[in-house]
Design brief:
ten-stranded mixed beta sheet; 280 residues
């Protein structure tokens, strides 16, 4: 039986009332094998099914497996690096990271069980990478960054300091946040609720990317929701809101957040290239 089939069968039993107290050693072993596969990058919570950034689709069985990891484990005291804490899942062992040239700095870098980090990555402290997240080769997770559950981060991505990548576990059919290869997110960006950023985009600092915020794409001359097309330079702006007609605002009006996307100039792309000295 494949791992997918085993997770599917276990999920059916969980839906029928199986809990952590009733789980057998075999059930726990199935979940542990699944978490190992996540950490090895052998399974992913979403996959790209076409050429465009809009074609990312959730692997529902993988997200169910993550939910089983919570549902069939109990909160208890754990210890990592001499520090005691209480959680459902342990933190990730990191011996394999050094084997592929990936670094995580001490005193605040938290990588949860079931997260994948590729080769030549850097995770600066303090930062947090949650269960089910996939961080591809050469990506920088900077200080005060959060990579949420099941988020899919491509290769050679720069997550600027204090950046939030939201997580999506439920509903299981919903694709998580996706940041494709070569993207640079400025400090303080927020990407949430399954928003997808196309490859080689450069996003200005403090930009909010979420499906409810419109993307005014000056390249295609279209307004998009839920994704930013590839090869764009994007930045935050505010546009007039219909609420501005309310007497409470007077002559000042009211504004709502928006994102403006333009052509990605060569100079902008060059300015975001990673410094190779950091990788030596």
């Amino acid at each position: 039986m494949s791992l997918e089939s085993e997770i599917g069968a276990l999920w059916d039993r969980y839906q029928a009332g199986l809990d952590a107290g009733d789980a057998t050693a075999e059930d726990v072993a199935t979940v542990e094998t699944f978490l190992d596969a996540l950490e090895a990058g052998e399974v992913r919570a979403a996959e790209k099914t076409g050429a465009d950034v809009t074609t990312w689709t959730a692997n529902e069985w993988v997200k169910r497996g993550v939910l089983l990891a919570f549902g069939l484990n109990e909160t208890r005291r754990r210890e990592h690096g001499g520090v005691g804490y209480y959680d459902v899942l342990p933190l990730r062992e990191t011996e394999d990271l050094g084997e592929r040239g990936t670094r995580n700095t001490p005193d605040g870098t938290v990588i949860r069980r079931g997260a994948y980090l590729g080769a030549d990555c850097i995770a600066m402290s303090p930062s947090f990478v949650n269960v089910g997240a996939y961080v591809d080769d050469g990506t920088l997770v900077d200080s005060c960054d959060t990579v949420g559950s099941c988020a899919q981060i491509g290769a050679d991505v720069k997550l600027g300091a204090n950046t939030l990548i939201g997580g999506v576990l439920e509903p299981v059919e919903e694709a998580p946040v996706v940041i494709e290869d070569g993207v640079a997110l400025g400090a303080g960006c927020r990407v949430t609720s399954g928003f997808r950023v196309g490859e080689n985009c450069v996003v200005g600092e403090n930009t909010l990317l979420t499906p409810n915020v419109p993307v005014y794409d000056l390249v295609d001359e279209e307004v998009y929701y839920g994704h930013l097309p590839a090869e764009r330079r994007a930045f935050a702006r505010y546009v007039p809101s219909s609420l501005g007609e309310h007497d409470l605002f007077g002559d000042a009006g009211a504004f709502k957040p928006a994102v403006v996307a333009t052509d990605l100039e060569r100079e902008t792309l060059d300015a975001t290239q990673r410094e190779e000295v950091l990788r030596e």
